[in-house]
Structure formats: structure tokens, C-alpha cells
Amino acid sequence: MAVGEYGSGLYRFPTGTVLPAGGYLVVGGQANSLDFVPDLELLIDPNLDDPTVPNMVPAGSWEGFGFALGNGGDEVLLLDAAGQPVDVLVYGDGSYSGVIPHPGGVAAPGHSLERRPPGVDTDDCSRDFVERYDPTPGRGP
Q1: Dist. CA 18–CA 26, nearest whole Å
Q2: Where are the beta strands (DSSP E) in 46-111?
Q3: What is the phi/psi pair of residue 42, to 5°?
Q4: Using an 8 Å Cβ cutoff, are 34 and 28 in contact?
Q5: Which end of the chain is more exposed for a tag (fewer CB within 10 A), N or C?
Q6: Residue 107 Cα distances to 1, 29, 131, angstroms
Q7: Contact (Cβ atoms closer than 8 angstroms) between residue 29 and residue 40
Q8: What are the helix (H) ranges across the chain?
Q9: Quick one: pLDDT at residue 65?
Q10: What does the pLDDT read at residue 67?
Q11: Is the separation of the CB atoms in 116 and 81 below 8 Å?
Q12: Is the separation of the CB atoms in 92 and 102 below 8 Å?
């Protein structure tokens, strides 16, 4: 997570991307800086682009520029083609109507929040997500 609040970014999946029911894609920021290869890259610095990983496509901004998750809390929304929420993750002091936040973010760099158990969504992120100290993006525990 980046330090501070930088605004709410809005990105589209590249043309031709398919996310089947029950499937997943791993989106990583600055793929060259990760110790795994994500399915898609959220390109923040064009000088650090990994040309082997397709980039998410900037589609505007809700309230500012760029993309960064706040350490104190934030929301991540997956929207359908009509702009309607399909899934929502809220943590810390973030808020989204009808969704209970996970009580915190991640405690240290390299950790992540993971849906547990996979495929279960109760709109209570405190129950639906756990902090992973040794995350395995794109694989099960």
C-alpha cells in the first residue's frame, strides 16, 4: 500500500479480458517490482512497465488522479460493464453503503487481504477477508 491518499482511480480491464464466474485475475502494481508475475499490471510509473504483462487501462478518476490504496482504510470495487458493483472490499476507515469493513489494512509490507473461504461473500469484510502474512497471489493457501 502506498502512503497517503492520492485520489480514487478508475481502471478498465484490457479489451478481450475475460473473468469467468468463480474465476479470478491477479492485478499487481508495477509488475517489475513484484516477486510474482500478475495477470495484469496497474501501471503507476511508465518507466517501470513490464512489457510482458498486459496493463489495466486508465478510464478516468472519481476524485483525483492515479491510484493508491490508503493505509488507514479504503475501498476496492469490481464493477460490471454497466458500472454496477459486482464485489466490494472495504477495510479500515473506508466505507461503502451496505458493506461492513475489515477492521484494518495489512500490518506490514508484503502482506495482503485474502477472501476466506474463496467464493463466499456476505458483505461483511471482517468475516470474508483475512490478512495473509505470506500471500500466494493467484494460488490457494
Answers
A1: 13
A2: 57-61, 73-79, 85-92
A3: -95, 95
A4: yes
A5: C
A6: 10, 19, 8
A7: no
A8: 125-128
A9: 46
A10: 66
A11: no
A12: yes
